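Consider this today:
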Amino acid sequence: MSLGTIRHDWALPEVMKLFQLPFNDLIFKAQTVHRQYFNSNEVQVSTLLSIKTGACPEDCKYCSQSGHYNTGLDKEKLLEVQKVIEKAKAAKAIGSTRFCMGAAWKHPTAKDMPYVLEMVKGVKALGMETCMTLGKLSPDQAYALADAGLDYYNHNLDTSPEFYTHIITTHTYSDRLQTLAHVREAGMKICAGGILGMGESVKDRANLLIQLANLAEHPESIPINNLVKVKGTPLENEPDIDPFDFIRMLAVARIMMPKSYVRLSAGRQQMNEQTQALAFLAGANSIFYGDKLLTTANPQIEKDQALLIKLGIRPEPRQDYGDEVHQAAIEQAIIEQDQTSMFNDSTNA
């Protein structure tokens, strides 16, 4: 089957062969596939906000928000709707086109759902794409979110089915797949990926991608996270993974799911510019903008803007909403950055 074909029948031996390709050959294949479906010099930009922080009943061994571990994180109740809307406005002003909201829950409660739905409606009214991660969903909750206008629901699989119980015991892999099924049934788009650096094998990474790629429809967004080691969690002393192994994961994800956005997610704070440039070359075309993700650090906006300018990459416009005013603001910000850079070059000549 030719490169770039949409498939749902991937098998472990052929995926392992991709991981074992010479690095240059793998990157070339991934970039070839990427250019079939995307502008290679555009990146989708999102902002992530924690709308309810800490005291989560789940025992995910990587998470600063788990109530099972003492990470020193301050617990916060669900944010007021208007505060969330103000944060979304600020995100739009810096060029984000998607606003993602995350709550540290096992699942949303009947008491909290009305506020969550108002958040979706309010952000949607700004002309931004909306995304939420709230834990497990029932079918009724999925339909309610879809009716409110939620575009994406994030529910990561985290790792392979075989390695999963080493990381999480408070809910099952099938629980996660069931939530994804409810999301798809309700008509929303899926954001689902995983985390590298938790002690998993290359085979586990391959099996994670197989789970995602062999769904009836590929997730529209695939976040690939590099473990952020949080003090107080069971994974705080895990060894770093080789950056080239991380890039390989992005490249194989791009080849297996050609039309999906592959998001360079948590862990960018620890990556140098060269690693991030390789990530974009491997087919990553989505990032989070803003100094903070849910609770962990993210590169400063100015650093991201400077890097994108160096690489000649521009934020992707919101073509589906036709938000020409918003895109013009993004373009103007980049022009001003370019002019500042030219001025600095001339004064240092």
